[in-house]
Structures are given as structure tokens and as C-alpha cells.
Design a protein that fits this description.
The chain is of the alpha/beta class. The chain contains 10 helices and 9 strands. Helix 5 links the parallel strand 3 and strand 4. Helix 3 packs parallel to helix 5 and helix 5 crosses helix 6. The longest helix has 18 residues. The structure holds pyridoxal-5'-phosphate (PLP).
Length: 233
């Protein structure tokens, strides 16, 4: 199967999951996670109509943004979905279209200052840690609302929603309670005026994106199911 074939299959599965959930498939944005994948694979996906890509390291996002400058002119975008260190914030702001992995109020405010300095507003998502895993990044559940409150006051960023990287389960259904909980937090935050109605829920990867869509995902981040196994990690 080519990348175009696999993309087509993923789009069909997204439509199927949306239908089951009684949602329009157009409400779900597919991010093709291209970390560790060569430029040629990104070009192939672009050729098959894919526009939004995800990278988890700033250095790699920056290199790919440069290599793909011509395709960016034609609509290609890169989301940062991995851990962002504070000393790389300026590089990230220069290279990506959205940052999904904001894991503290301080980091969000740093992004806001860097974006303001270059005269842009950076869309961000706040990554939530709902499992209390110290190995993972994300705002602890107990601090989620105060973080959203602080970031709602910052200019230079637009808080577009929440992102989740749940524990890895063999059975994708086991992730469902986490997806559901992120949606409940989103709904609460909307009620509290901290997020806009319909704010984004970025959740679901290759093995569990259909379950995530059934639970309300508006952004799914799919890597290996599109590009195959990563050459190196
Ligand atoms: C790598 C990665 C993905 C995609 O994972 P696959 O299992 O390859 O689909 C999604 N989200 C984040 C944050 C990632 O780092």
C-alpha cells in the first residue's frame, strides 16, 4: 500500500467513526504525524491531499519547515505535538502553525510573548495529563482550569482547546474513559467561559482514533497508520 492508499483508508475510517457518533466527518481534522519520516513521505501525503502535519521535536519541525517552504506556500502546515522546552520557544513560534503541547501556564505565556514579538497570534492547545504519569508531559488535571484561566488572559496566543496523550493500552477501548474525561473538562471549561463552544479536542492516534472520534475528538493525530513504521525513534 502506498501512502496515498493508507491516507484514503484512514479518511474512510474517520468517516465511519464520525457516522457512528452522529457527527459530520468534516468536523474532524486529521494531522498526519510525520516525525522521523523523510521529506519524500510528507510530499507524497501532500500529493494525496493531506495538508496538516505533526512533528514532536522543534529541531525537526524547523528543518522540515525550511525544506518544505514551497509546499507551505501551498497550504502545508506543521503542528508541534511534542514536548517544548522553554529555550526553543522562539524557534517553535517561527516554524509551526499551532502548538498542541502546552503543558504549563509559564510555557504558554512564554509562547505568547514570543508570538507578540513577531506580530502573530499562535493557536495553542493545553495538553492535559489525566493519568498522573510522571513520564508524560501535560498539565495535571487539578491545575487544568487555573492554567486555562491564566492563558485566557495572555495576548499573542489563542487557546483553541485541549490535547491528550493517554496511557498506551493494547485494547483501544481502554482509552475511552480518558477521552471521555477530556471532553467533560472541555465542556466545563466552555461553561466557565474559558474555552469557546466547540473548542478542539485533540485525541486519538493510529491505534485508537476511531474510539477518540466516538468520544468527541475534533483533531486526531495519526502517524504509523499513514506512513508505516518510523525509520528511527
Ligand atoms: C507519535 C505521536 C502520535 C502518532 O502516533 P502513531 O501511533 O504513530 O499514530 C500522536 N501524538 C503524539 C503526541 C505523538 O508523539
Amino acid at each position: 500500500m502506498t501512502i496515498a492508499d493508507r491516507l484514503g483508508a484512514i479518511r474512510e475510517r474517520i468517516e465511519g467513526a464520525a457516522k457512528r457518533a452522529g457527527r459530520p466527518a468534516g468536523d474532524i481534522e486529521l494531522i498526519a504525524v510525520s516525525k522521523f519520516q523523510p521529506i519524500g513521505s510528507i510530499e507524497a501525503a501532500f500529493g494525496a491531499g493531506q495538508r496538516a502535519f505533526g512533528e514532536n521535536r522543534v529541531q525537526e519541525a524547523e528543518e522540515k519547515a525550511l525544506a518544505l517552504a514551497a509546499l507551505r506556500q501551498r497550504g502545508l502546515t506543521i503542528d508541534l505535538i511534542g514536548n517544548l522546552q522553554s529555550n526553543k520557544v522562539r524557534k517553535a513560534v517561527a516554524s509551526v502553525s499551532r502548538i498542541q503541547s502546552i503543558d504549563s501556564a509559564e510555557l504558554g505565556e512564554r509562547v505568547a510573548r514570543a508570538a507578540t514579538d513577531v506580530g502573530i497570534v499562535m493557536p495553542i492547545l493545553v495538553q492535559a495529563d489525566l493519568a498522573g504519569e510522571d513520564t508524560k508531559h501535560g498539565v495535571p488535571e487539578s491545575e487544568l482550569f487555573e492554567t486555562l484561566e491564566r492563558l485566557a488572559r495572555a495576548s499573542g496566543i489563542r487557546v483553541a482547546g485541549l490535547m491528550l496523550l493517554p496511557p498506551l493500552f493494547e485494547n483501544p477501548d481502554d482509552a475511552r474513559p480518558y477521552f471521555r474525561r477530556l471532553r467533560l473538562h472541555r465542556d466545563e471549561a466552555v461553561k466557565g467561559g474559558l474555552l469557546k463552544p466547540g473548542a478542539d479536542l485533540s485525541m486519538g492516534m493510529s491505534h485508537d482514533f476511531e474510539v477518540a472520534i466516538e468520544e468527541g475528538a475534533t483533531i486526531v493525530r495519526v502517524g504509523t497508520a499513514i506512513f508505516g513504521e518510523r525509520p528511527r525513534t
